[in-house]
Amino acid sequence: MKKKTYITRTVKVACFLLTMLLTLSFLQGYALRRLDHHTSRFKGYYRQPNGAVDVVLLGASEVYTGFSAAHAYEKFGFTSYPYASESITADGTLLALKEIVRTQSPKLVIIEPNAYLYKREKNETNDAHIHKLVDNVPLSSCKWDYIRSHTQGDETYEYLFPLIKYHGMWADYPRQGKKVLNAIVQDVRGAFYLKGFRTTVGKFLAKEKVLNQQILTENKTEKLNPNFEKKLRSLLDYCKAQKLNVVFLRTPHLVIKDTYGRYKRSCRAAEIVAEYGYDYLNLEHEWDKTGIDLQNDFYNYDHLNIYGTMKLTDYLGNILQTKYNIGKHTFSDGQQEEWDTSAKYFNRLYRHCDELMRHTKPAVPEEDPIRFDEDIDTFRMLDQQ
Predict the structure, then answer these.
(1) What is the CATH class of 34-383?
(2) Which of these, 26, 71, 154, 212, is most buried using a 10 Å CB contact count?
């Protein structure tokens, strides 16, 4: 009798603990955490088997808005993926690169250097921008080393267990419920067909004088913030130590008086990168070669719309194919079907955005802009086309 009672209690305790574990996992994984396009992008990356990605693009929002992995696959045959986060920090860039090395064996890593071009260090301590990356990195030795060296006290636990930071998110319901449903559907589906891409519909007409034509014929430089130069050199040292095949890429922007200094710091970064023997594709300095139209191919000063994305992807893809010998991917285990589907969905998205921009007001709405990324509404719309 006592033995039976003991077994019953043990089973009850085990069931209770299992229920608590599952509840906490659900709360931390879905209900009480930041869920946005970053969540989808990183989940999609980490679902790729090792060796499934030929080229990884690392950087800030210019990466996931300016390059389409699905279009590059359809046109050139190689696979790629953006390991990118909005306003990624310099320290976050090194963490991201270590994660890429840990999880994939890409033929090439393309590094977008925006994190090193700020004049001041305010972005480096921006809590929101840091969490957009770190929250979406699974617990690993790389993440643990980052947390130990960048946090202290209660902040450490917030990075290890996002549930602690976002416990007050109950106030966002029922709006948050749609994001939770979207995340669950994505996990069940298991495929992320836009491969981390995000776009905003519209054509941006600059209100200030644009200097892009001027910078075609100059190569002026400006010193980097000393701390950012130190961190850039640390990143380059890591690349050398790991014998990585990397290329730096500065995507086109609409350069104006306020961002002219950033352009010149980019040119200085190119000199530093060259010291280490790496290429720096400064497309701000040769934006005209990409075919990008300054009046039609941006949705704001810093980001390309889907027209610009097509042109940048075509231009960069051709360079990767001819200069860096990135050939067609050899598929296994049915992966090619997923990439074929990705190309199909991207083409549908392009046609839809093109239709909106040709038949509606061309300017980007200042309030509630139309954006498309990897979510339920986007795919419901695309499936109806």
Answers:
(1) alpha beta
(2) 71
